[in-house]
Specification:
This protein is α+β, with helices and mostly antiparallel strands and 524 residues long. The chain folds into two domains: 137 residues, Beta Polymerase, domain 2; 318 residues, Cytochrome-c3 Hydrogenase, chain B (Orthogonal Bundle). It is built from 16 helices and 16 strands. Strands 1-2-3 form a three-stranded antiparallel β-sheet. Strand 15 and strand 16 form a beta hairpin. The two termini are 23 Å apart.
Length: 524
């Protein structure tokens, strides 16, 4: 969608944002985009909101107030819970302090990192940015910033830990954190009191690097985010560029993209089901999933040339046409796959130990899922109809018959079962399309140097774990002025504390297994 930003002004911003949620039901905060808008406007944020009843989306722009060398914006921490980590991300990269946010610390960068990387005047030369080789300094304190009646910026210190708190570090290399995530967990015996997520162990500065690259060069980054959703991520990026340029795609391109997206979704769900079992020590179920995933990767590899990194979509269509055997092999895989899913339930899903470990664990109701921005299967397990393919159709999802799978359990067991049922839906979508791929161009030729008209756009797709979106601000050049990716997993990390407070240490492992996040996507 092309953004048409609403502006309330600094003094009215917080009150008007509260009205949008309480009076107009814009209860889902999709993302917050921090941006250096240039010397005339300075620093600020764009907030993208959705009404979960009508699925209408709007965008709000708020410029930061400059106080000497400091920049401030009122925090919406107490309006949308998902803004916790989203505002900390903006602070980390742009240095905007959010007034009233109780935990204004860096999120991805080290605590002793100097500078604000996404500001346009940030010096990226290696001589100016040599990371210290010592351990990162830790503090038991965090900061809250507010303005006095006289307009003076004041800091209030808050303690993160009490003197008698016992703190356990899960990660950054514990296998059940699925990568380099560190969860600083305060416990009382076996009971979890609080969880502080520490991110950035695999942060690579993709959004900053994209600002100095041409649009075709930016595509390679998407495949290296959530490597199980490479098709989905690249689909979002090429779609936002194509929408901005007004590119009309052929039906053949749209059909093939839809099929590839669903094959990628099955790929993602198979690894999720396998690692969920492995985290609970059920190795056999993991091997079953990996066995069937190999058949799927064989089908995709014939056309894309890749198994993990799928660099197949490009601006204007596809890298190449489908392999001559693609239709036949895809149908053979779908016919093979359908009865196999029951095996996962026989071996693991319906096991009494699985039910004991997952039922009632990591519970998060519908209202909290919306408030914390927990999208995808995790949110649908609580009954939230959040599937982007239904609410904001793209490709040919509005031309096929399929069901959005939701549940009511709102716990780890329900999340597992949503993934199981979604595999069947993906197979249904593929089988409806595979024999009906129309003739036509697989690529709409573009100019050698792609330039996007001036404007701001946001496009999202339904990734394997939830909504993945891309915000694009173009100034009419061959490179994006600002390109921001909405990762699927960041809001999941922000919801861990809410999900697990009062539960047991073992429940953290089980909940982490049922939340489908991949850290390179989260860290970018």
């Amino acid at each position: 969608m092309k953004l048409s930003n609403i502006e309330f002004g600094f003094d009215n911003f917080l009150a008007e944002m509260k009205k949008l949620k309480t009076e107009k039901h814009f209860d889902y905060l999709v993302t917050i985009v921090g941006e250096d808008f240039g010397p005339e406007e300075g620093l600020g944020c764009i907030y993208i909101l959705e009404n979960t009843q009508t699925h209408e989306r709007i965008s709000v722009k708020q410029l930061a107030k400059q106080l000497g060398d400091e920049y401030v914006i009122p925090s919406i921490y107490h309006v949308w819970a998902s803004s916790d980590l989203l505002e900390r991300e903006v602070y980390d990269f742009l240095g905007i302090k959010f007034l009233g946010h109780p935990d204004m610390r860096r999120l991805f960068m080290r605590n002793d990192f100097e500078g604000w990387p996404l500001r346009k005047d940030f010096d990226m030369s290696p001589e100016k940015n040599q990371f210290p080789m010592t351990d990162e300094p830790e503090s038991d304190w965090t900061s809250e910033w507010n303005l006095t009646k006289d307009g003076e910026l004041v800091e209030t210190k808050h303690r993160l830990f009490d003197d008698d708190d016992f703190v356990i570090n899960f990660g950054p290399n514990h296998p059940s954190t699925h990568g380099v995530l560190r969860l600083q967990t305060v416990v009382d015996g076996e009971t979890i009191k609080h969880i502080y997520p520490h991110l950035g162990y695999i942060h690579r500065g993709m959004e900053k690097m994209m600002e100095s690259m041409t649009y075709p060069q930016t595509l390679a980054f998407t495949d290296r985010l959530n490597y199980l959703c490479a098709m989905h991520h690249r689909h979002a990026l090429v779609s936002v560029i194509e929408e901005a340029m007004g590119v009309e795609l052929s039906e053949r391109i749209q059909y093939i993209r839809t099929i590839m997206d669903e094959l990628q979704r099955i790929d993602n769900h198979l690894l999720f089901l396998g690692t969920c079992a492995q985290d609970l020590s059920a190795l056999t179920a993991f091997l079953y999933c990996m066995r069937d995933r190999e058949h799927l990767l064989n089908v995709m590899e014939e056309t894309t040339g890749g198994r993990l990194i799928q660099n197949y979509y490009r601006i204007g269509g596809l890298q190449d046409d489908i392999d001559p055997n693609f239709v036949q092999n895809t149908k053979a895989f779908c016919n093979y796959m359908r009865p196999m899913v029951q095996e996962y339930l026989d071996v693991f899903g319906d096991n009494v130990i699985t039910h004991k470990r997952l039922e009632g664990v990591g519970y998060m109701n519908l209202e909290d899922c919306v408030n914390y921005g927990v999208t995808g299967p995790a949110g649908r397990a609580a009954g939230w109809h959040n599937d982007v393919r239904k609410n904001h159709p793209y490709a040919v999802y509005d031309k096929v018959d399929w069901k959005e799978i939701t549940g009511t359990g709102a716990d780890s067991m329900e999340r597992y079962m949503i993934h199981i049922k979604e595999i069947y839906q993906s197979l249904d979508i593929i089988m409806q399309l595979i024999d009906n791929i129309p003739e036509g161009e697989f690529y709409i030729k573009q100019k050698p140097i792609i330039k996007v008209p001036e404007g701001q756009w946001y496009t999202s797709v339904e990734g394997g774990a939830g909504e993945f979106g891309v915000y694009l601000d173009s100034r009419g050049d061959k490179s994006p002025y600002r390109l921001k990716m909405r990762p699927m997993g960041l809001t999941f990390a922000g919801a861990f504390d809410k999900m697990l407070r009062g539960q047991k240490v073992a429940d953290l492992i089980a909940t982490g297994a049922s939340i489908d996040f991949v850290i390179p996507d989260l860290d970018r």
